[in-house]
Amino acid sequence: MIKKATTMQETIKKNMREGTGQVVLKALADEGSVAHCRLFSEIRLEKGCSIGEHNHVNETEYYWITSGKGIVREVDGDKVVEKGDLVITGGGASHAIRNEEAEPLTFLALIILD
Question: Which domains does the chain carry?
Answer without folding.
Answer: 5-113 (2.60.120.10)
